[in-house]
Amino acid sequence: MKKVASVIVPVISLDRKAPRPLHRQVYDGYRAAILNGTLEAGQRVPSTRVLAAELGVSRIPILSAYAQLIAEGYLESRVGAGTIVSSSLTNKTKTPELASTRPTKRVVRIGQCAKAISLPRFLRLGSWQRTRGAFWVGQVPYDEFPFRIWNSLVARRCRNLSENSLNYEDPMGARDLRQAIGVYLRTARGLKCDVEQIMIVNGSQQALEITVRVLLSPGDPVWMEEPGYTFARSIFSLNRCRIVPVPVDGEGLNVARGIQQCRDARAALVTPSHQYPLGVTMTATRRIQLLDWAERCGAWIIEDDYDSEFRYESMPIACLQGLDRNSRVVYIGTFSKVVFPSLRLGYLVIPSDLVDHFLAVRFAMDIGSASFHQGVLADFICEGHFSRHIRRMRSLYSERRALLMASLQEYLDPNLAVTGAQAGMHLTVTLKGICDRVIATQAARQNLWLAPLSTSYAGGRARQGFILGFGSTTVADIPAAVRTLRDVLEANARLTSPGLLATS
């Protein structure tokens, strides 16, 4: 049975001019709160002295009311624990007349923004974080995180808390963290930026939300990679932008097709270092074409650089922003993949002449990010732990990625179509003759978390396949997980011959 430890004074209205005596009013208020579930079984109630002080009355009527409630079994008094709602009471004790007052059905009207998006499928599964089976996309190996170092940095920050550290932080974010990020981006990612252009945000999703609110208006057309990141599509839909799906091929976003479909788009969202979900890297030719288009048409490029730190067959690719000579690129980065997702810290690199606009929108949304973990993260970066952690994870992911590739070839098909394995924390397989959503549902029962490739398409003909994350799946588990995937595929009625597993 759930216990609520905190003592909260319930809302009880007293009318000193009413004919009912005060003790009866207190009794009736408590009885009603217990019967309708406002006060739960096991919940502590305030002492008679505290309640009398809160209500501004003497203890005599409070003592009388408590005595009656205890006598009737609504409250019970325990030595050392005070007075609590009787533990024998449950929701089943609610009186019929109180329960019947609750409406059984109502008409709900929601705004146009909420109508533009739907709840993601995995959130409908209930406790969606409960099922963290093999191949969960974007998950980091928590058991490999340097907890001892992180905890020591947290403890040190706690010991040094001051009045200033409890106040609102600069809406742009903690300056020491922004400086650390600036050094990292200039050195490792080839960005051109200074600390005044960097804004700390609550993850890449908020970074995109702020960017869209600053740069776009309802009805504005925006290029989006097809297939592309579903949650980014939700942000555009929420802000009522017109999404223009632009196909992705082996060189990345097809800029020429985008110009044919909508030359006057106001912005383009791209993942050039490791396209999501296909994993291709945008070629230099395409990058130059995209920058030229943005300059000629006065459009914006939103670069989402979500997992560029992890590359296995070459050095990390310089970012698109570093090639931009006309300040047309807004750069988005996140620590969800390189530290851990619940940290909820990301960052924006903003063209200098747009900083005030971004700051105004950010301040209106939520004033700024929580400051404590910004300081811890700044220490983590500046003291060298961040770069060492990335190197360790790069080696670990490389091993897991190689084993996953070998297992797919061994247990599924040597000629299986696999893309995106050169970088990042996921790869994508495409299959013929299947319905990936159906198989993903069946695989979940076997503790496999398969992200259907088809859900990344906005429209048109969607390819069938799966986005397989290997970051949090151990070397010991990968072969068995692939064999389970094979068994699920073979058991599916749509697979009638091994030839269906051939390349698409």
Structure description:
This protein has 504 residues and is an alpha/beta fold. It has 3 domains: 22-99, Orthogonal Bundle (Arc Repressor Mutant, subunit A), CATH 1.10.10.10; 121-139 and 391-501, Aspartate Aminotransferase, domain 1 (Alpha-Beta Complex), CATH 3.90.1150.10; 146-383, 3-Layer(aba) Sandwich (Aspartate Aminotransferase, domain 2). Helix content is 37%, strand content 13%. The chain is built from 16 helices and 15 strands. The protein has an 8-stranded mixed beta sheet, sandwiched between helices. The chain has a 4-stranded antiparallel beta sheet with strand order 12-13-15-14. Strands 1-3-2 form a 3-stranded antiparallel beta sheet. It starts with 21 loop residues before the first helix and ends in a 13-residue tail after the last helix.
SSE arrangement:
Blueprint: H1 22-35, E1 44-45, H2 48-55, H3 59-71, E2 75-78, E3 82-85, H4 96-99, H5 112-115, H6 147-159, H7 175-189, E4 198-201, H8 203-215, E5 221-226, H9 230-238, E6 242-249, E7 252-253, H10 255-262, E8 267-270, H11 284-297, E9 300-304, E10 329-334, E11 346-349, H12 355-366, H13 372-382, H14 385-411, E12 417-419, E13 426-430, H15 436-444, E14 451-452, E15 465-469, H16 478-491
Please report the total strand number as a whole number.
15
- CATH-defined fold name of the largest domain: Aspartate Aminotransferase, domain 2
Fraction of residues in β-strands: 5-15%
Biggest sheet strand line-up:
4-11-10-9-8-5-6-7
Low-confidence regions: 1-5, 126-130, 494-504
Tell me about the largest β-sheet: 8 strands, mixed
